[in-house]
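Appendix B, Record 12. Input sequence as logged:
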Amino acid sequence: MIRRPPRSTLFPYTTLFRSRQRIGNYSDYYVWADGTGPDKKNPPNNWVSVFDGSGWTYDDVRGQFYFHQFLKEQPDLNYRFPAVREEIIKVLQFWLNLGVDGFRVDAVNHLVEVEDLRDEPQSNVSGTKPTDYTYLDHIYTTNQPELFDLLHDWRLLLDTYEVQDGEPRLLMTEVYASLPVTMKYYGNDTRRLADFSFNFQLIPVNKNTTAANLSHLVSTYLSALPEGRWPNWVLGNHDNSRIATRVGEELVDAFNMLSLLLGGTPVTYYGEELGMHDVFISFEESQDPKGISHGPKHYLQFSRDFERTPMQWNNETHAGFTSAARPWLRVADDYATNNVEEQRSNANSHLNVYKRLVQLREEQAIMYGDRCFLFDDNKDVFAFARIKKGSPAYVVIINFGSNSTVVNLIEAEGCDGIFGFPTDGIIDVNSVHTLLLRGSKSGTKGKVPLNDVFLGPKEAIVVKFVPVFPR
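Logged structural output:
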């Protein structure tokens, strides 16, 4: 998988140079417009960059403004221009011929703008000013109908390669939008688009999230998913605080259980398998243009450097990430003890929990089984089961509460009589902090009575059992 096709090119760039000079077709490769005002030096409209400030930058060479939805160093390609669309198809073919299995399309909803460049309406979000991205309702610069035509063309291209060798080609899209809009990127039965668009429903979870809150987030997403479409689960990414920082290190395993065993594709941001956390980066150390552009007083609110620090491989200099004198960003202070090498040798580590969860994805119940939820209205306990007739079943139980709790699965409601729980089960996976059996602090797996499952605060387990089906 690679991150293509591009939304923009870098400044300077050969294609941009030719466009600035109005050379041939390159003249229309970008979104150019005349300025306003007596000297034509005011932006063409009120469009704002995602990073705040005008989305337009004046170019002295061409004597016009070019549009950039993000940085001024990233002028947006004009996807309305046929030559650009043809060029991008060639780019995708180049990579497909080299053997890539698909593409992740970054910020896909920003690829196309309205052609007449009309002003966007105000959002009426309180406390914002005209230079803030949130000041406007971006109905003319995101999610335009022509964008879905682009995706369809790319999907058809990938399909031709699938037909040739029988190997699937994946198209993933990144969209920060409402759930109904996000679901449009799947397409429909007659017009297939993305295999999936990243599910950011779990990005808001934090230390105050309850089991009931999580149940609502998960069920809302699954209910919105078009019939027959493939789900996915994202816990964090390069734009958002790490899951360990948001929910606490003790719940890292619990959320990995959820993303890996709920069904669908888990999208793991590097370091989540270790429980890596955000790292404070001073303004002087900052690298993220979004944070830097807001200055030392406000960068903490906007910078994404904190979740982008180097992967922690071992306890050597710079956590084994680089042999350079200095990495792009400094590593976390705990890298000497929280790293791949250390966790690999520790049976009771986040990494080994993660590896076991990956192994469980090969089980029939996880790969092909039904999914049902228990204790839907419980504010502390979140639980779901994966069941397939003829195979062992699994139930994931997470205690979000601050106190220990006892769960009675045999009397649990929520699976609509599909199956029943037997008397006992076997704990297959436990979070690093789990007290597996009542009164036991040994941390070893074992048999557990399913009418008396003990969980300490913020602990999670995966229990294997043989489901009882109605005759």
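Confidence is low (pLDDT under 50) at residues 435-444.
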